[in-house]
Amino acid sequence: MVYTYSSYKVLQKGSKAPEFSLKGIDEKKHSLKEFKGKKTLLAVFMCNHCPYVKPKVSKLNELQKKYSSKGLQIIGINSNDTEKYPDDSFEKMKEFAEEKAINFLYLIDETQETAKNYGAACTPDPFLFNEKLELVYHGRIDDAHGEPHEKAKTNELEEAVKQLLEGKKITVETLPSAGCNIKWK
Q1: How far is CA 67 from CA 14, 101, 115, 121, 158, in A?
Q2: pTM for the full model?
Q3: What's the domain count of the chain?
Q4: Which CATH number belongs to the domain containing residue 9 in this structure?
Q5: Boundaries of domain holding 58
Q6: Does residue 90 surpass a pLDDT of 90?
Q7: How far is CA 116 from CA 63, 88, 98, in A?
Q8: Are 68 and 38 in contact (CB under 8 A)?
């Protein structure tokens, strides 16, 4: 494991979300176009084994439950090399989703092209897009890296989601997320 921070080399604020077509644990293909019309899309690069992701899944579940009726859709994307890291395999994704009661889409990026197109570098690495699928926030969930959200003193991601859903300018300070590096092939 290499502790890594979000990268800002690929997508900048205002960048359009890159297209993708990825298989979900529901056995269906999902693409960016199915999220058009949502007020906001939160794409979180994550995986099953990362000690920085595990304590944040309950917060992501909470956000999906709390804001889905207002237009939020969360998707988790696992881009790790599953041959070298079998704990992140598609079957293990299903088990992890059941164990953590994941209530949002969880997709596998087998080619790692989606992670590269988004500039994802770590897990978790959240990208928040507006209804035009333009990037409005790419930063950390909170300041409790590797700890449950309840131990956090900040709540940047939820504040950004709330501001976006209320039609306000995103004023949340953008600090990079940090966690395990994406396991590249």
Answers
A1: 22, 17, 25, 26, 10
A2: 0.97
A3: 1
A4: 3.40.30.10
A5: 3-181
A6: yes
A7: 26, 18, 28
A8: no
